[in-house]
Sequence to fold (567 residues):
Amino acid sequence: MPPDLRIEDGVIRKAAVGFRLDDEDMSAPEGETLAAALFASGVRTLRRCPQDGSPRGAFCFMGICQECAVLVDGRVVEACRVAVADGLEVRRL
Amino acid sequence: MTDEHFDLIVLGAGPAGAAAAVKACALGLRTVVIDEALAGGGQVYRAPAEGLALARPGADQQSGEELRRRLAECGAMLVHNHRAWLAGPGFVVEAVGDGGARRFHGDCLVAATGAMERHLPVAGWTLPGVIGLAAATVLLKAHKVLPGRNVVVAGSGPLLFLVAAGIVAAGGRVAAVVDANPLSAWLSRLPEMAARPDLLARGIGWAFALRRAGVPVFHGHALRAIGGSTDVEGVLIGPIDRRWRPAEGPARTLAVDGVCLGFGLLPATDVTRLLGAAHSYRPGLGGWVPDLDENMETSVSGLFVAGDAGGVRGADAAPFSGELAAIGAARRLGRGVGEEKQQGTLLRSWRRAARFGAAMSSLAMPPPEAEALIPDEATVCRCECLSRAVLDRAIEAGSRTLADLKAATRCGMGPCGGKVCMEAAAMLVAAATGASREALGQPSARPPLRPVPLDAIAGSFDYDDLPIPAPAPL
Fold:
């Protein structure tokens, strides 16, 4: 189990729901953004730079940098602008 | 696509946009607020993620709740979770959200689009685990997630201490704060800071909390490199001089698993640029800002700016400029009569509140010489994967302007649209050509202002419905 970066003290979260990242089963509180959920679970590499293959991950967390682009239901979306939902199918580019 | 008509369109639901909307509604303007986030608040008063509740909400959370309550009750149409990707004269704003594309017409427009983070590229900053300082505030505020187990917080300006103290308060570990400014630069801003004893006390509280937690603060230092193969493993820090150039002195390595990095804020001027408003270079306010009169109106009649998009003055000043913009818009539409007295009061309050924010903004701003901190191997344009060495070669080969550099290398033409790299690229052009940042101007704003799915813009249509012009007679 990777380290979890969620702060527990004084925080009330929704129950965790399951989603899939590539072929891996993941879980996170419903409503958390995908970028935050993956980051908190220790999954920080979300894609490879198309030019040199270097690993990239969420950088701005507010929809500007486009570093957290992933495929959800076959569409390229920013992981920082998609909420975790039960059964979400996420693929890394 | 449906067309919706309003007296006033407000872009952005942060403290400036919310204040503009509430005041405009009070003055009887039919108002729509378009915002990218799921709920109002902007960055400073960002709402917790859906379903997340705090047992003990802090002051910023409470202010955010108050802002969202006032916004919900003011009578404006609230269009959350929509991205405005085009703003045209007249005014027309095209936005895309879950329900597809929408077109809004407004007689006046208030751009309350806030600010973006400024970055100075460093080797290794593209590694996963390196995030912006503003990004760290999103994780801490909206998600209650730490930016790492053991992080270094580096860059310039007050966000350094807000983020580091926030991590410590949440039980996280900060290996060090690396501040480009010497302590004397902070002390030189004391007169402006003393104008707001409450904010000064908050800052001193952060410094004490860091000291209690045993967090070392390296003033006059910068990251020289971030190391790691697939993830952040450590950083190299070293001293810099007063113009932020690398200086002699011992370098240190720190083992960390996360980096929070940022060099102050940059006004988000894409809407005012796209609409052709006049701008001036004011480094004390974060760089290029639209020219505004006392009504917060730009050189384009009916186009107003509120909050940090008009110059980074901070969240405390933002609501005053929002109200001034709303009064200005009402007057343009012949409805703001009798507001002159209040306008004078608002203007004085705005100027007072702005002193503190502007002092912090100028402190965070890298001097032109800071380009020396960007090593040859550092990726400058993250989207197109262009290093400083590649950009410098293009500049040497004749790229003299930002447009030249884009054409020669694609710098700034990736998915982010140059929002992350353009200031750093401009520093490189300025350093190599001897031109001032002011002389280089701003890059052209181009729609889409944010990436949007093409099918959402195109909408649903049948090929048979497309008008085909009759063939030209032979």
User: Anything to note?
Assistant: Residues 340-364 of chain B form the longest helix (25 residues). The two ends of chain B are 37 Å apart (CA to CA).
